[in-house]
Amino acid sequence: MSSDGWEVVIGMEVHAQPRTRSKMFCGCAIAPLNAPPNTYVCEVCLGLPGVLPVPNKAAVEAVLKTALALNCEIPQHTKFDRKNYMYPDLPKGYQISQYDLPMSVNGSIEVGERKVRIRRVHLEEDTGKLIHAGDKLHKAWESYVDLNRAGVPLMEIVSEPDIRSADEAREYAMELQALLRTVGASDADMEKGQMRAEPNISIRRAGSEELGVKTELKNINSFRALQRAIAFEVERQKQVLESGGAVAQETRGWSESEQRTFSQRSKELAEDYRYFPEPDIPPLELDREWIEKLRGALPELPSVRRARLAATMPPSVAFLIGGDRDLADLFEQAVAKGAPAAATGTWIVNEIAPSGKLPSPDNLAELLRMVGEGSITRDQGREVLMESVETGRTPAEIVAEHGYAQVSDESELRVLAEAVIDANPKAAADYRGGKKQAMQALMADLRKRAPQANPKLAMELLLKLLG
Ligand SMILES: [Zn+2]
After folding, report:
1. Cα(87) to centroid of ligand 1, in Å?
2. Residue 464 — φ and ψ, nearest 5°?
3. Which residues of 428-456 are buried (b: 16+ CB within 10 A; e: fewer)?
4. Considering only CA atoms, which of 165, 126, 212 is closest in space to residue 1?
5. What spacing in Å lies between the alpha carbon of 29 and ligand 1's midpoint?
6. In angstroms, rounded to a whole number, what is the distance separating the alpha carbons of residues 4 and 17?
7. 152 CA distance to ligand 1 centroid (A)?
8. What's the pLDDT at 149?
9. Helices 410-423 and 438-449 sit at what angle, rounded to 10 degrees?
10. Ligand 1: distance of its center to the CA of 129 in Å?
11. Measured in angstroms, how far is the CA atom of residue 23 from the centroid of ligand 1?
């Protein structure tokens, strides 16, 4: 509850693209991002007359895994329905979705301290994409349609209005992304359009039980935009109500460039879509044995894994690693091979997660041992790690080939330190005269002459020679 007497009420619809090779009702492959327009289409997803849609089992499985991870009930029967509307990116004139018998209902997810109830998770198909081009000056407008995305499977995860702030909405979406990735249901990459959020927002006087009029924000495609768009919308609604106005129930968009929401259209009601059962697909009877098999095979969920990891590392590190199944597996396997937990966590967060490329647990453990023993520097370690990921070769092979191994031989380092002092008489005199920061110039020259010199031993020798 906010301090100004208003309570914020947010429900969320999240669309995520199930991880499948082909589209929802035909054999077309999922188009890569930069595919030329209309090259991943067939009679079915173009909506030509007389074709028959066949549901994609992998998409159904992805929804069931997600629903089970969200503690949903899976009804015995489910069916597809036609959602009828006319739009140029939907040549069929209807979208196949699910209306009154969704694939799952009544779940929940923990978001920090809050339990957010999940109303339903259902399966539907995506539409095509419109591309507008034109010459503003001569008012010559052209619109193109790309149907590569038409018929791509989408699951819709609908929450109850249990979220209470813009920050919490962002956390909820991040938690869902981690869950989708962990169970392998979706890559859920918002930048690639594989996950998008549609929050509905209303405010009410603190203590009131009645819900205020809500607005719905469409197609938010980053966590940052989600947080900002909701924060803006909450402030806008407060101003409208405090100045005696009424919030209009409508769909609004988010302008990234102007950082504000804007009215798009008044909200459609369900009856506007004339839903009716899809006559070309018989109702599905979900096999209980299959569902129990999926339930039994669910991996450890992010919230549980985070709690377990937090026992051995700082909470922020545990949050990041525990929310990503690949990173968490890598962490645990590298530690099992003898890598120290703290260093492994740090390297995964600082080097591996940002690069998006995973080394093998063996190679990571070997690399951390070499850095820990001081046989290579941290900087060299970073390069070796990246090269190991690219080539699959072991860190030891790469270090040997580059001659990276640090020089720790005292007589060799002493010659080097003497040469550095001879070449920098002013810095040496400054240091002896009490200017401690002159050591930096001496060390810099030393590193330039011999990048592989063990910096700790070299510094000790310089100090000894100057003392
Ligand atoms: Zn197709």
Report:
1. 19
2. -65, -45
3. bebbeeeeeebbebbbebbbeebeebbee
4. 165
5. 8
6. 39
7. 9
8. 96
9. 120
10. 15
11. 7
Distance 126 CA to ligand 1 centre (A): 12
Both structure tokens of 45 = 């997803």
Amino acid at 272: D
pLDDT of residue 270: 63
Which parts of the chain sit beneath pLDDT 50? none
pLDDT of residue 136: 73
Q: Count the Cβ atoms, other than its own, within 10 Å of residue 328.
A: 23
For residue 96, what are the CA distances in angstroms to 225, 261, 275? 29, 29, 10
Q: What is the pLDDT of residue 68?
A: 98
Q: Supply the pLDDT for residue 425.
A: 94
d(CA 258, CA 198): 19
Question: Residues near 440 by Cβ (< 8 Å), separated by ≥ 6?
Answer: none
